[in-house]
Structures are given as structure tokens and as C-alpha cells.
Design goal:
With about 290 residues, this protein is α+β, with helices and mostly antiparallel strands. About 40% of the residues lie in helices and about 20% in strands. Strand 12 and strand 13 form a beta hairpin.
Length: about 290
């Protein structure tokens, strides 16, 4: 504890620290300098008193660019003003050759670099041990479209087409893309039991039936698609569906010619004809033909 006498109010003040006593002396009501100090603060903060500033021109020590700053006299005396033209110049550092060598040596001898190098050497050993597989990397195949031989450099054993040939024939109707029981019947591909019954009925009634190969463009979810109706019977398009949906209606609107559609209810006469003649397991006809 400190007990000291204030020189302005002449009171004995008991404080724990010396700085608290100095604070009392500075803010004492009997101190004549207190009023002047508070008046200066008020003038500076209200804008009545404006501190004079000095314009200083100097060159950036990094890039040599000439720039100008405005600072107060107190900042100039304390040497705390801006020395560089930008943060890029102030944050950049110039390394000497000796310092660069020291940094490279410390990095090379660090434990992290040594552990990383050891992992890379292990990986190289494993690559060298797999050289026997790399010898069989190139595989020959015969293109099913043009009949010419080709070489696959990606080790694809099941490759069947050249890239150029595949681009010519890809797209369009895809066999087996539906969820129904599909297969071949007398050269006709059917994607469901409904289609099989319809094909059998038309063949046995001497109607000219063939798979449709013409696609019609439609837009769904802001994307372009191609719609291929199922058959062409006596030059008329035929579509066979299990149930009606919004997508089906959109597809049918894209067709610019007459098309007949069969749903689950309207296809029943054809199914009854086939079941009465071949039984309920008429799907086995797929196997007999294949």
C-alpha cells in the first residue's frame, strides 16, 4: 500500500499501486492542467482543432516507385509512417544465396521429407514388381461393324468396336432396356410379354409387322430425347404400354403421323388369343427360338 500526498488538493491518498496515484494527480479537480487537456480533447474530436499534416514524397525501397503520403509531425518524429508503396512490396522478401542454401539443407534433412521419400521408394518398388502385367497391356480385337482388326491400349478384353465405328451405330433403340421379360421370337425382338403376344397374333394373321427404327424428338425436363415407337404394322405405327403416364402423352405428341397405342386393358384380346393356343407360359417361346 502507498500513502502519498497530492500536490494539488493536499490530501493523503492510500492506493495499492503507484500508477493509481499518478492517475489521481492527473485527474484531480484542483489540477489547472486538467481543464486545458480536456478542452484540447474536445476540440480535436469535435473537429474544431485540426492537426497539421506534412506531405512527404519518397521512393519505395522495393520497386523504386515514387509515392506521396500525409502524416503528422508526431508520426514523423517517431518514424512510424509508411515506407513501401503497397502491401505486396512490404510483404515481399529478398533472399540471399547463402540463406537459400541454408533453407534447402534444413528442408532436405527434415523428418517429414525423409518419410515422404521413403513412401515414394516403396511405391516405385511395387510398380517394378508389376512389370509382368504391363507386357499384356495391348489386346487385339476384331470390330463387329467393319470387320477389321484393332488394338486396345487400355487392356479392355471385351472390346468389340473401333471408336469411330461405335459412334456410327451407338444410340437409338437398346435391346433389353425395359423391365419386362424380353427375348427373340422368329427374328423379332420383344421387350415384354405384351409385345410377344402382339407379334405372335400379327404373324399368324399374315399382317406385315416390323420393328420401328425411326425416332421422334421430344423435350422433357428441358432436355431433348428421342422416342421410338415399338412396331410398324401394315405401315402404321403401334405403341404398347402397361399404363398411361404424363411422359407417354408427351412422347405421343411428338409423332407427326397416325399411331395406335395399346394399354393393359386394350391388349387383352391378343393375350387371350396366345394363352388359349400356347398356354399361360407362352414366354417359353423365347427359349425355343434362341
Amino acid at each position: 500500500m502507498y500513502i502519498k500526498k497530492c500536490k494539488w488538493c493536499e490530501k493523503e491518498i492510500e492506493v495499492e499501486k503507484q500508477c493509481l496515484f499518478a492517475l489521481h494527480v492527473a485527474n484531480c479537480d484542483c489540477n489547472p492542467n486538467k481543464i486545458k487537456r480536456f478542452q484540447n480533447y474536445k476540440n480535436t474530436y469535435t473537429g474544431k482543432k485540426i492537426t497539421s499534416r506534412i506531405k512527404l514524397e519518397q521512393n519505395c525501397p522495393k520497386c523504386g516507385k515514387l509515392f506521396e503520403i500525409e502524416i503528422t509531425e508526431s508520426v514523423f518524429k517517431r518514424n512510424k509512417y509508411k515506407k513501401y508503396c503497397s502491401l505486396k512490396c512490404s510483404n515481399s522478401k529478398t533472399w540471399s544465396d547463402e540463406h537459400k542454401k541454408k533453407l534447402s539443407e534444413t528442408c532436405k534433412n527434415s523428418e517429414k521429407v525423409k518419410s515422404a521419400n521413403s513412401i515414394q521408394t516403396i511405391g516405385r518398388r511395387n510398380r517394378k514388381s508389376k512389370k509382368g502385367k504391363e507386357e499384356n497391356k495391348y489386346v487385339e480385337f476384331v470390330c463387329e461393324y467393319c470387320g477389321e482388326k484393332g488394338v486396345d491400349n487400355r487392356y479392355n478384353k471385351n472390346r468389340k468396336f473401333h471408336k469411330e465405328c461405335w459412334l456410327k451405330i451407338s444410340g437409338g433403340i437398346r435391346k433389353g432396356s425395359s423391365r419386362g421379360k424380353n427375348g427373340l421370337y422368329k427374328g423379332y425382338w420383344c421387350d415384354s410379354s405384351y409385345e410377344l403376344a402382339y407379334v405372335i397374333y400379327n404373324l399368324e394373321h399374315n399382317n406385315k409387322i416390323e420393328r420401328n427404327k425411326i425416332g421422334y424428338e421430344y423435350i422433357y425436363n428441358d432436355k431433348k430425347h428421342l422416342y421410338y415407337p415399338d412396331f410398324r404394322v401394315n405401315s402404321k405405327l403401334v405403341e404398347i404400354k402397361n399404363y398411361r403416364s404424363e411422359l407417354t402423352d408427351i412422347k405421343l405428341k411428338s409423332v407427326n403421323e397416325d399411331i395406335e397405342i395399346f394399354y393393359k386393358d386394350t391388349i387383352k384380346p391378343y393375350i387371350n388369343y396366345v394363352t388359349n393356343k400356347y398356354g399361360k407360359d407362352f414366354i417359353k417361346l423365347y427359349v425355343t427360338v434362341q
